[in-house]
Request: fold
Amino acid sequence: MNHHPAAAFVLALFACLCGCGTATIGGARGFATANDELRARVATLESQNRLLTAQRDELAAKLAEEQRVREGVVGRDVLAAIPRCAGIEIDSLSGVAPADPEAPVSGFILYIRTLDGERRFVQAVGTLRVEVLQLDEPVRGEPARVVASAVVGPADLRSAYRSGFGGTHYSVELPAPASADERGRPYMIRARFEDALTGVAHDASHQTSPRRSR
Reply:
């Protein structure tokens, strides 16, 4: 297995750290600062090395998958078990940002989930189109106008993947125009995901009514 240059540099820096015990760099404070900087650099390079290794392994897995498909090794039962996007939803926490009702509206934060046939999150590959519309009245109906929109391609969508206490989703942030700086206005969020693998498009919408500041 080939070793990445980053891994070799990490080992060199680690050896340097171990050998710094008898050195003096501008006194105790200078020594501590240099040590901290080296440790931070080592941590950064280790993280980069893990990322490069994961990317290499993923590429190898993709090549192996393509080879098995060409050879007809992958059976119908395996293909049937692969989860696929069956729909999308917009999380109810999506809306204006920041969340502080006293702060002016600076943009919109959207949390989009791609779901399989059992309504579980599944990572998907495709293009996500989102738009935020400002409504004249806090009721469902025709939107007044689009105040923010974006098209997120496959690569950027993958980078938008998030998983944490708020669940697993794709996070999309949109800047807001000056006219959107009214927290009492309702907004309609619309999303369309065009699956690159199946060619199927999935739509979702969510209406949010920002709270007025006190």
